[in-house]
Write a structure and sequence with these properties.
7 helices, Rossmann fold
């Protein structure tokens, strides 16, 4: 199936370093393009970032938001990270939460948020900060498990679910239609079950 996504849609992929957000963003953009939906991946650039001061971090975040907006103007933007990723990275490096307010305001404009599941204990701190920030901002998200083709399939199914929910919502609901039925759950067993149930419904 091909999701029906609104013009200028942004799909934001969040996750700790090493969870494969860049590779998944590229794969999703390629699949969308093959399905006739213009899509561009957007790299977050955090791998080349060396924990600057607050002013530099804010400027980095502004440039990140500009690049995501430019990609969205050309079609669907599949963003490897978002302003929220930068705020979390800065908080972890400098113990400074000053960027969260602006980052959450920017991230709320994104239609779909996918959070990569942790693979190793070293990723736990970033994952916990991302989940806490998403909860504070009341931002809905789906957790994507697996690797390789399975991870791509799980991410694709989550996007389909977001798109289906938006299409089924009453007219006038707007952004609130883009919701995930279990956005505050952090139980990995529940997250696995959510994908299993979703696949079962699609094959019913």
């Amino acid at each position: 199936m091909t999701p029906r996504l609104p013009p200028g849609c942004v799909i934001a992929l969040l996750g700790a370093e090493g969870t494969g957000t860049a590779e998944l963003a590229a794969a999703l953009a390629e699949r969308l393009s093959r399905r006739g939906i213009p899509a561009l991946p957007v790299c977050d650039g955090l791998r080349d970032w060396c924990a600057p001061g607050r002013a530099e971090a804010a400027a980095f975040m502004a440039e990140q938001m500009r690049r995501i907006a430019a990609a969205a103007n050309a079609g669907v933007a599949v963003a490897d990270g978002s302003a929220l990723s930068t705020a979390v990275h800065f908080d972890l490096a400098q113990h400074d939460d000053a960027l969260y307010l602006e980052a959450l305001a920017a991230h709320r404009r994104h239609a779909i948020t996918l959070l990569m599941a942790c693979d190793t204990p070293t990723q736990a701190a970033t994952d916990a900060r991302l989940r806490a920030a998403l909860a504070r901002g009341r931002i809905t998200y789906a957790v994507v498990h697996g690797s390789g083709a399975q991870r791509l399939a799980n991410a694709w199914n989550a996007i389909l679910a977001f798109a289906d929910a938006a299409q089924d919502a009453p007219a006038g609901d707007g952004k609130d239609a883009w919701t995930w039925p279990c956005e505050k759950c952090t139980d990995p067993r529940c997250e696995h079950r959510l994908f299993t149930d979703l696949l079962a419904r699609r094959h019913a």
